[in-house]
Fold each of these.
Amino acid sequence: MKQCEYCAKEISYHEQYCNEECKDNALDFFDKIESKNIIFSVFQIAGIILMIIGFITGVFQAFWGTLISGCAAILLGIVFYILPFGTLEMIKKFKIKKMIKITKLIALGFILFGLIDIALGQFVF
Ligand SMILES: [Zn+2]
């Protein structure tokens, strides 16, 4: 069965979206990806590099390592929450609406992980 590209509702074979609203939402989403793709990539790479620096620092200095990697996780979480761009495979599998939900949940997980990481670094190690 064919599904709406946005909300994954079942539709007939000659349609792409179940209604105009889904079509508008999907087009808005693809516009956002196109216009924000560079800034999204920059923040994503910065977050990953910062996290690696944090882990390396953590080997020598638990306090600073957890602080840096925690901040990196929070940064990544915020970026993915504001710009919930999942992979093309995720879009294909879940359709856009569900993919945004899943990506935002993962983003909140990153923020939570970052906060716990920082808290552990300050109070435990
Ligand atoms: Zn729909």
Note: The chain is about 80% helix and 5% strand.
Amino acid sequence: MYNRAMKCGSVAVIGRPSAGKSTLVNTITGMKVSITSPTPQTTRNRIRGIYTDQRGQLIFTDTPGFHLSDKEINRRMQEVTVSSLSESDMILYLLDGKRKPGKEEETIAELVRKAGVPVVAVLNKTDILSAEEKEAGLAFLRSEFPSSPVLPASGKDDEGVDEILIELFRIAPEGELLYDESAYTDQDLEFRISEIIREKTISSLSEEMPHVIFVEIEDMEYDEAAGHVWIRASINTEREGQKGIIVGRGGENIRRIRKESFSEIKRIFPGSKLTLDLRVKSQPGWRKNGRTLDRIFRK
Ligand SMILES: Nc1nc2c(ncn2[C@@H]2O[C@H](COP(=O)(O)OP(=O)(O)OP(=O)(O)O)[C@@H](O)[C@H]2O)c(=O)[nH]1
Ligand SMILES: [Mg+2]
């Protein structure tokens, strides 16, 4: 019997690129909701991860890491992040304890304060921080958010995450569940699949390359009765000459991307046969092309 009202609230997860936002959302939901990588600016869209327990429901919005830049694609990513701030009941602000706060960090802390919603401030990556780094990170958060809870955590090692949930549920408004209690994301299948392929492509590339690719599902058919899924997807580069890097010598790299994507996509369709056809294309200058960007940022 519940003698307390159910809580239901939305939480925007905000922080600089690589602060560990997507990793934390995956840890909280216990699912691979959002792709992650060591390369900054991995997340490009607003990605929902839903957590439900006897206290109620928290709907997390993972956002692109906030990066000060005038490039068109960065502007689009900033828009996604900034609009998520004002649309949420609460903000979970994540500080990467390994990086010294500078102008970018202060800009984002100010945006978070100005959103006018309750904030839970978290110093992340405590598993790899020295005592001094911990102290400095916590001091920064306490001075930027004097009236908010400030907590240390490691999203990767699932440390301090229960304490974050306690604070968020304490602040969350009362309300009925918005999603079924078994739901963990609201992304459509095509988007999830394209993200899995993008993650596997990013992890096969060197530092500078991830930003020049985007993935599109060109065709997908799911015959549930026959238990067969057909997917044809393209990995798109910014220049013709970059295609060879994705394909790799003798097709070695693309085969690995396909194999890794295949086993992860298969988990979405347990028991079904999967046919995955990956092509590599070039879309010159796509990062400056408004129509392509509209497609990528339609989420
Ligand atoms: N040691 C440590 N590494 C972490 C932790 N959380 C995330 N990472 C690593 O930090 C890198 C970035 O993690 P992501 O979760 O992709 O970061 P993000 O904030 O979503 O990054 P963007 O989407 O680019 O803004 C990855 O290599 C993670 O494995 C943590 O708690 N501890
Ligand atoms: Mg991310």
Note: The domain at 7-171 is CATH 3.40.50.300 (Rossmann fold).
